[in-house]
Amino acid sequence: MKKHYLCKVMAKYKPYRDDTGSELPFPWLINLVLMIAGGIETLRLRFWSRKPRHTAEKTLRDILTISRDTVYGKEHHFDRILSATSPEALFRLYRHFVPENDFEALRPYVERHKQGEENVLFPGKPDMYATTSGTTSQPKWIPMTHKYLNDVYGKMSHIWTWNFVKHRSRIFGGHIFPIVGKEVEGYAPDGTIFGSVSGVLVRDIPSIIKKHYTSPAEVMSIGDYAARNYTLMRLAMQHRDVTLWATANPSTILELLRVVNENIDELIRDIEQGTLSENFLIDDDIREHLKAYMSPMPERAAELKRLRKQVPDGKLRPKDWWPQLQYLSTWKCGNTKIYMDKYSDAFDWKRTYYQELGYIATECRFGFALDESTESVLFPHFHYYEFVEESEIQSSVKHFLQIDELEVGKRYCAYVTTYSGLFRYNMNDLIEVGGHYKNTPTVHMVSKVNGIVSLTGEKLYEPQFIEAVHEAEKDTGIKTKFFVGFADVDESKYHFYFEFMSEDITQEQANDFAMCVDKHLQQINIEYESKRQSFRLHEPEAHILLTDAYARFKAACMKDGFRDGQFKFNLLMQDEARRQKFSVIERMFSGQNRLSEKLFEGAANLDNRIDERRKNRQKKKSDRSARRAARKKKEKNTSL
User: Does 304 have pLDDT greater than 60?
Assistant: First the structure.
């Protein structure tokens, strides 16, 4: 009975049919291929997730066995660890001989690989390096082995793409719009490439799926950030049947929506004529390559013009230009919700399935979300995981827990051991357990551990700061576009930077708003309240930012070498270098005010000087007239 009812519902509700009655074709061949490849890997995931502790032991033994004869394996006694006869002994010996690591601890070994040395962290050399920002001025070069790219990344991708089909069976009946990093950004000293792992995987994806991409990988080689975004949307919007939009960072969605509405006339003209605007800086060889992906589409351009006239504000949204969009996939956890809320009305959520991208990072694919929740399913047969309870994160003595020891509702810091030479690697992420997949915990990202700031023991969390700002908005009626907070150790206070919706907000209003945020922080966090009441924490200081402050900051970071997918930005942090960047934006704003004040002051002084000179001239003129009159009177008296 229930099954019959569901069939009737699905027969009535067809998200693949647009308002005109046009239907997406059913991609039988692609779905069959994905069902076989993804179905097999899904069965393996289910099997290994039933006994997570046993799986953890198997995975750790496999990783250590592969690397036992390497430099790192010999230095850290992998042979001795592998002699353990029980899971408990194996885990204990691993903790004893191998320290918890960050990248700086592993950097010397990675540098040896970069110089061409083999068998340092793992047998042979890596296939590539994935680069990302580090805690020092030097980027992190995360090695990626052939086994990890093929047996971990590749097989996890089979599950990921098959999961798309399970939720929207015709998703590959149209064009797909993934935004990934540049596949090759350069070469290590030994000639090994470094770049984006996702870019390499897209490069190697089967042609049966690749032909559905809206743009080729060459677009990501466009150096100018604005030009790249314009080109992405130029190539994507020419297709009415885009069905999948996937990008890690929700802020990218906002930026691309802005690009569309700021350049809509140019976009429509390019689509109509089959051209690529000359207003953007794009290398000639890339322009030449992209010609094959563009042709005049006057009907599509006419449709966009018509749609633009129909929307009240003249601003087109994805639900307008892509009426058959089946799937949107981004990060949804942590502080990303602040960006998601800003485009909530831009999509037709009855048609578009919005899924958490998953707990993924440059270092590893920790897990994927497989349903509509924000929970990521872990892959215990691909990684060995360890966890430290939130209360022990700052402790010098940590108690490491196994995957089967986690409790729903509790928060932990995550550590991972991979097939790519990361051993007991601190992900520096605070995660929360939300449920289980079979018997294996599912997790979601809360914040970076450095999203927890403590100047005097208040342990202020990024989500608490976000909540306090939103409560202050309700109390005051003042709305923000963007905000960020920085802890100042020297002055024992927080600096709150705000970009307000209204540009008429005065400094006095900003100060009052900051104090309202402060009030709510005291209500939310009792330790913060205690430190404020005892004057160990001073009043926060408010700063007003220029319009589009976040976009300016992000664009600057892109120019500095960040890739969009790895641009992870905390809204609460203790980072003087980043604070100085925002201070520059704030000083520019203050400087404009000061300049305006000086101009007005100068103008007023000039007016005063002119008036004074006018009065002096009038006085001199009057004096001259009086002297002339006196002289004439004297002359007249003399003549008499």
Answer: yes
